[in-house]
Amino acid sequence: MYWDKDIETMTASALRDLQLRKVNDTLARARNSKYYGQLLAKLGVGQLASLSELEQLPFTTKDDLRAGFPYDFLAIDRQDCVRLHSSSGTTGIPTVVYYDRFDVEMWASLVARCMYMTGARPGDVFQNMMGYGLFTGGLGFHYGAEKLGMLTVPAGPGNSQRQLWFMRQFGTSVVHVLPSYAMHLQTACAEAGMDPKRDLSLRIAFIGAEPHSVEIRQKIEAFYGLKAYNSYGLSEMCGPGVAFECPQQEGMHIWEDAFYAEIVDPRTGRVLDDGAEGELVLTTLAKHAMPLLRYRTRDLTRLSREACACGRTHVRMDRIMGRSDDMLIINGVNLFPVQIEKVLMKIPEIGRNYLIEVVKQDYMDKLIIKVELDGNAFQGTLDQLEHLQRRICDKLRTELVVTPTVKLVEAGSLPVSEGKAKRVYDLRKAE
Ligand code: ADP
Ligand code: ZN
Predict the structure, then answer these.
(1) What does 54-79 look like in DSSP terms, one character per residue?
(2) Domain count of the chain?
(3) More confident residue, 220 or 93
(4) pLDDT over threshold 80, residue 156
(5) To pair with 2 at 20 to 30 A between CA atoms, which of 106, 193, 217, 243?
(6) Mutate to test the pocket of ligand 1, among 62, 232, 301, 318 (most ligand atoms within 8 A of CB)
(7) Nearest-ligand number for the alpha carbon of 118
(8) Domain final position from 270, 291, 325
(9) How far is CA 128 from CA 168, 286, 398, in A?
(10) Which residue among 95, 210, 236, 244 is best mutated to probe the pocket of ligand 1, counting the most ligand atoms within 8 A of its Cβ?
(11) Atom of ligand 1 nearest to the CA of 94
């Protein structure tokens, strides 16, 4: 049941002791980098006597990483690096991260631990439908799956009919896929006349790398007849393997032997108590090549230290609400794209894709939501279509306190990307 029982079920106090030891190891290593060497010397920081002293250190941000490009954060000799990755650049210039042999090995073990936790076992056939290359989602899972002992199919993203063919031919039982792509692939199943529950052997999906609602997860589970587990990571920490859902599917365990997690108020930077929603800040505890102290992820979530029925003691985080920079402000009302998704996915006539546009009209912000119809669930007349449109609009208004314009479009007509879904087009700045 456990990949590493001693670590996964460690008592809270033993885990804190381990973290303190590892934070001090990390500080010692970080001092070897140009950036932290200067910073820690300037602040006069030596060893920490308790984890709470970490709060006195400044945050590290994505901008710091960019300014320190290419080597200011490197804490080892470049000769000892064996890999580099970069963030997918969803929000600007990419940042580069380095790994030594130890880091690559540790990362694979963390990913293997995540997958094992959900019930993936040697003998499973694992199809990795994530991008290989600089993006960490491909290789990160690849090495984790091999370490676990699964037969690993490095399918990469896209080419839907080929994905389905692989699944059938190889008897794929476990997949790693973007939630938006898992939704899109349903269309390809329909085109191939395939019912995944009847024709495929899928048991488990790992879905992550982009925000998604529990409603999307449930749709994926129901369509493919599998259990889908939320997977969270970011390249700055290693990639996937930072936090993962256990069989309870009630939050993702953050592996606290490898990361120290805090939640802060994104505006003031003040550390918040467990249970409060805010920005996740992570400190690496095991990285050699590029240790990071108090890295601001910009991801909004909350932590729970309630005991988990799975027996693991590591803190859990909620599914990501969005990035602090994803928040839309519509005529003064704040909202996140996932809130819109949650409402949409509860309406049976709605299909698999949607996108959000924001425009300025007569000095007012206008929210336009384009939604694909589900061709099977809706076969009504034009009148009924208008009625449906009004219903969707009412539901969104009740939930969001913003009145959107809803445009219903044909299934398959909205753009799909092979990488992370781009859902929001904010056209206000362009005007
Ligand atoms: P980029 O920041 O360019 O997208 P990464 O590939 O490092 O680069 O992506 C990490 C980010 O992806 C996270 O900070 C988070 O915003 C998002 N992400 C990763 N996993 C999840 C998940 N399970 N749910 C929601 N968002 C996620
Ligand atoms: Zn659990």
Answers:
(1) GGGSPPB-HHHHHHTTTTTT--S-GG
(2) 2
(3) 220
(4) yes
(5) 217
(6) 232
(7) 2
(8) 325
(9) 15, 26, 39
(10) 210
(11) 3
